[in-house]
Amino acid sequence: MVISKEWDNLLELISDGIIITDHQGVIVKVNKAYERMLSIKAVDLVGRNMSDLKREGFLEESSSLKVIETKHPVTLIQEHFGKDLIVTGMPMFNEQNELILVINCVRDITELNQLKRSMQQIEQINHSYFEQLTYLRQREIHLDGLVAHSQSMREVLTNALKVAAVDSPVMLRGESGVGKEVIAKFIHQNSRRNGEAFIKVNCGAIPEKLMESEFFGYESGAFTGAGKGGKPGVFELANKGTLFLDEVGDMSLDLQVKLLRVLEEKEFRRIGGVKTIQTDVRIIAATHQHLEEMVAQKQFRQDLYYRLQVYPISIPPLRERKEDIPYLVDSFARKYEEKHPVPLHIDPMVKQLLCRCDWPGNIRELFNMLERLAITSNNGEILPDHLPLEMYRPVGSTLPRNFLEEVEMFEYQGLKQALVIHKTTRKAAQSLGMSQTTYVRKLNLYRDKFEADPKMEQEIL
């Protein structure tokens, strides 16, 4: 059958690919859209039989051949030359109801499928994120002093969450006062043991002679003064839960041996007892000491060190994460208000000044300072002039050589404090009851005399 000129022009206007065969499967027409879609010329297809093309592997299935076989419309999904195609074959009959043509409409759905796959991937990712957020919301905890706005502390909490999911021993390393116990509780609360006991033992606060009974308990009559009925130790009390060994470096070598045995065999006996008690505890240890040096000096057992040091987490000192200080201050204020009926307001300038300190005692020192200021301040408001003079930076490393010089250093601290509070030398001088000229002269004189590094004051002035 010959396609008329009008029909031929109409077929070229269609954006979908069109391929027409006769009732025997011989191709009689291919439009330009089909040529572009499959990068093939019509001249290479017209006159060819679909059976031959299928046998040669040009296509896996032929909608034309299926229509010829069934005399009904057929729709196929095909992958052809890296493209996803949807092919619909429609039969055309003459007046005698004889099949004369099969018109196949071909649409490229590659981009649509790619978009669908992308949407599925996005849905999977969103579902994963939703599950994680749901888990975190379910596990959300509010611990006093847990602040992680700095990058270093966010990394600490990320590592803590990772190890919380397993039962591996954790070693928390860091200076005194950085919040090791808070991180230990965070790990416990986000572990499968969060419904069980969290028991803390300060290995440096218990006398050595009492440590063994604290760890393993004792039976009645085990020693002079032993309580009637005996007493369970922390390994019993923390069973199924978490045992936090704070300042583990202070533990005696004898007790280290016994602790190692319990960790390896997961059983122990009370002092004076004959019954073996099974234990299932998660161990989190903490220390501010250099255990590696202690191991080298035979002050800490190497085998116990490796047993506890499975997953070390280093908690940075406060001086290395000063961006957390304002949030720690706010955390303290909320906690203080929960315990006391008086609202506590801390001036923003106070937060700035607190951020200038190195805090060798870390969070513990910061909170102690804030509590002292909250007690001594009037009407629950902490202002810059409530801060002690040493908060306005120490005077280099210079030490006074006599009483007169000590008085001068004290006056210098007062001059600097006034400048920090009032911002300008004029207002600072006015607050101290002196002229601006006198104020600036004394400030420069003392700076040249006492500052070990003149650049230090650039931040303030």
Describe the structure.
InterPro entries: AAA+_ATPase, AAA_lid_NorR, Homeodomain-like_sf, HTH_TyrR, P-loop_NTPase, PAS, PAS-assoc_C, PAS-like_dom_sf. Residues 3-50 form the PAS domain. This protein has 461 residues and is α/β, with parallel strands linked by helices. It has 4 domains: 5-112, PAS domain (Beta-Lactamase), CATH 3.30.450; 163-316, P-loop containing nucleotide triphosphate hydrolases (Rossmann fold, 3-Layer(aba) Sandwich), CATH 3.40.50; 319-387, Orthogonal Bundle (Helicase, Ruva Protein, domain 3); 392-459, no CATH class. Helices cover 44% and strands 16% of the residues. It is built from 18 helices and 14 strands. The strands form 4 sheets. The protein has a 5-stranded antiparallel sheet with strand order 2-1-5-4-3, sandwiched between helices. Strand 4 and strand 5 (99-108) form a beta hairpin. The protein is elongated. It starts with a helix and ends in an 11-residue tail after the last helix. The model is unreliable at 137-142 and 452-461 (pLDDT under 50).
> What is the level 1 CATH name of the largest domain?
Alpha Beta
Distance between the termini: 97 Å
Order of strands in the sheet with most strands = 2-1-5-4-3
Described by strand count, sense and barrel closure, the largest sheet is:
5 strands, antiparallel
Q: Helix amount, in percent?
A: 40-55%
Radius of gyration: 40 Å
The share of residues in extended strands comes to 15-25%
Oligomer: single chain
CATH third-tier fold name of the largest domain:
Rossmann fold
Which parts are unreliable, with pLDDT below 50 for 5 consecutive residues or more? 137-142, 452-461
**DSSP E strands, number:** 14
The rough form would be described as: elongated
